[in-house]
Design a protein that fits this description.
303 residues; Rossmann fold; 2 domains; six-stranded mixed sheet; four-stranded antiparallel sheet; binds adenosine-5'-triphosphate; AAA+_ATPase
């Protein structure tokens, strides 16, 4: 199973171009779509989930044309939107049973089995009789996954699921997702770099509706070896450093500022080489130190 997105564009009525000629090949497994707020992630996710029309382009899931065969796609689609409403007075088990009926699982014995197994898989079995209104953020998200998994989707679209989860809930949630990636296409949109580095075998960086990078996280990190340098400075020095160097990121650490810069040769000035991580990759791409490439990270500095 593979998802092929070709030349997708979308401009809203207010003139905002949310997607500009987006093309991606998404194989089975866990795929990360990483970008800041407003990058166009939700627009792309809603189009993949057959809830929105692009202006142009095509999307193919295996042999299905996602934009034309919507009913067929919906049978094999799971979608966890950024926000969803639940009946607060319903129990988790009742609500999931209700969604299973909507999904067309009419045989009651089969449905009971499926609902039970999903509640166990999402670690909600013990709280299945509690009202959804009493659920924590993490429990809600896991319930959302249980709903999205009804009917064994071949395509699972998950939009910013970890925003608002505490660290323990986030880890539990990511572990749950990582178990799903093997047999279907799972697309995870997020603005959190760690979500991608911990989970995804492939990823794309999107900003202002454009794909800036499409790669394997490990490959992108390797390609930056030797090009990331670190210094710890006083805040007042930052403007001067930004003039002189290609600054990737700055981070406060105990009142001082840790600066990462991009340079293919020793930049001097007290900078030391560091092992790059996916944050260095992401912020370098966002800062425009790299040219967009379709696969892998080419070491090309923009003029
Ligand atoms: N219905 C709409 N009408 C007009 N503009 C919209 C609409 N939906 C989104 N936009 C704009 O399109 C751009 C992309 O939005 P989108 O929600 O796809 O981004 P995102 O990456 O998901 O961001 P976020 O994480 O904030 O949801 C933004 O500039 C947004 O303001």
């Amino acid at each position: 199973m593979e998802l092929t997105i070709t030349n997708l564009s979308k401009t809203y009525a207010n003139g905002v171009q949310a997607l500009k000629d987006v093309s991606l090949n998404i194989p089975g497994g866990m795929y990360g779509l990483l970008g800041p707020n407003g990058a166009g992630k939700s627009t792309l996710m809603r189009i993949l989930a057959t809830l929105q029309e692009p202006d142009s382009g095509s999307v193919q899931l295996g042999h299905l044309d996602v934009l034309r065969q919507k009913d067929e796609v919906r049978k094999t689609l799971g979608y966890l939107p950024q926000e969803f409403g639940l009946y607060p007075k319903s129990s988790a088990a009742d609500m999931l049973n209700h969604f299973a009926i909507l999904k067309g699982i009419t045989n009651s014995t089969a449905r009971k089995e499926i609902v039970g197994s999903l509640l166990r898989q999402t670690n909600l079995w013990d709280v299945r009789k509690l009202q959804l209104g009493s659920f924590s953020g993490g429990m809600r998200q896991r319930f959302g996954v249980a709903v999205a998994l009804l009917g064994n989707p071949r395509l699972l679209v998950v939009d910013e699921p970890t925003a608002g989860l505490d660290p323990a809930e986030r880890v539990r949630f990511l572990n749950l997702l990582s178990e799903l990636g093997e047999y279907s296409v799972v697309i995870l949109s997020t603005h959190i770099v760690e979500d991608v580095s911990e989970l995804c075998t492939r990823m794309a960086v999107i900003n202002r509706g454009q794909i800036l990078l499409e790669t394997e996280p490990q490959q992108a990190i390797s390609a930056m070896h030797g090009s990331v340098w670190r210094n710890i400075v006083r805040k007042e020095r930052l403007p001067a450093l930004e003039q002189r160097y290609q600054v990737i990121s700055t981070k406060l650490l105990g009142g001082r500022t840790v600066v990462h810069v991009y340079s293919e040769t020793d930049p001097g000035g007290g900078f030391e080489p560091v092992q790059p991580d996916l944050k260095d990759v992401y912020f370098s791409v966002m800062a425009g130190h790299y040219q967009p490439v379709t696969s892998g990270l080419k070491k090309e500095v923009l003029p």
